[in-house]
Specification:
The chain is mainly beta. The chain has helices spanning 185-196, 207-214, and strands spanning 14-25, 36-38, 41-50, 53-58, 61-67, 70-78, 92-95, 98-100, 108-118, 122-137, 156-162, 165-167, 170-173, 175-179. Strands 1, 2, 3, 6, 9, 10, 11 and 14 form an eight-stranded antiparallel β-sheet that branches. Strands 4-5 form a two-stranded antiparallel ribbon.
C-alpha cells in the first residue's frame, strides 16, 4: 500500500460562489411548473438538522444508539426574487400593482450552482448543481433603512424547510448534488437542458427522472 500524502498538486480542492438560481413552483397537480431564472442570489446556506443520537440503556450499560430522522433546510438571501416567488412568500395580487400579504404559501423547488475549484485550475476546475425539493418559505423580516453616505442595497432573506421526495432504492431526500468533475460532460449537458430548458421549458426533474437521464 502506498504511503499517504497531503497537499498533492491538483488535489487542493475548495468550493465557493453561488449562481444560476432557478425557481420551480409546485402546481395544483403536484408537479413542479416551468422554471424561472432567479437573479440576484447572494447566499444559499444549507442547514441540515436532526440525525442526532439517542442513547438507549439496558442491563446497566449503554445498549445502543438510535438516530433521529435527518431533515434539510436552507436560508436564501438575495437582492431580488422572481415575480413568481411572491406566491411562495405569501403574497398575492389584489389587482395589478396591488399586493396582499399574509396569504397562503406555495411549495417550490430550487436549483443553483456552486463553484468547485482546485490549486491548478482555480475556479475553472468544475461546479456542482444543487437540486432542492419540497421547499416552504417561512416569513422573514425586511429591513428598509434610509439612504446615507454609505449606501447599500437591502437583501431579502427566507428560512426554508423541506419535505423529502421519494428516491427509488434509497431513503427520501430533499437535496441532490451533481458534481461536474465526476459526471461526464454529455450527462451534465443532458441534466442542464432539463433544468434550464432547451427544446422544452425548464423543469425540475424528480430523482426517478434524474436516474433515467444519468443511467448509461
Amino acid at each position: 500500500m502506498a504511503k499517504l500524502t497531503w497537499g498533492t498538486t491538483g488535489e487542493r480542492f475548495y468550493e465557493t460562489g453561488v449562481d444560476q438560481g432557478v425557481l420551480y413552483v409546485l402546481d395544483q397537480t403536484g408537479a413542479y411548473g416551468s422554471g424561472v431564472a432567479w437573479n440576484g442570489l447572494v447566499t444559499v446556506t444549507e442547514s441540515p438538522s436532526g440525525a442526532e443520537a439517542s442513547a438507549q440503556y439496558a442491563d446497566n450499560i449503554k445498549y445502543l444508539n438510535l438516530m433521529s430522522v435527518e431533515e434539510f433546510g436552507c436560508t436564501i438571501e438575495a437582492f431580488t426574487y422572481p415575480e413568481e416567488f411572491g406566491q411562495c412568500d405569501g403574497t398575492l395580487d389584489l389587482v395589478e400593482g396591488v399586493q396582499l400579504g399574509q396569504q397562503g404559501r406555495k411549495t417550490f423547488g430550487l436549483s443553483y450552482r456552486t463553484i468547485k475549484g482546485n490549486d491548478t485550475s482555480s475556479n475553472d476546475y468544475g461546479y456542482k448543481l444543487h437540486l432542492v425539493y419540497g421547499c416552504l418559505a417561512a416569513p422573514s423580516e425586511k429591513a428598509y433603512s434610509t439612504v446615507n453616505d454609505s449606501p447599500e442595497a437591502i437583501t431579502f432573506s427566507w428560512e426554508v424547510s423541506t419535505t423529502p421526495v421519494p428516491v427509488p432504492g434509497f431513503k427520501p431526500t430533499a437535496l441532490i448534488v451533481i458534481d461536474s468533475t465526476v459526471i461526464t460532460p454529455a450527462k451534465m449537458t443532458a441534466v442542464e437542458d432539463v433544468l434550464y430548458g432547451d427544446t422544452d421549458p425548464a423543469k425540475l426533474p424528480l430523482p426517478s427522472e434524474l436516474i433515467t437521464i444519468l443511467t448509461p
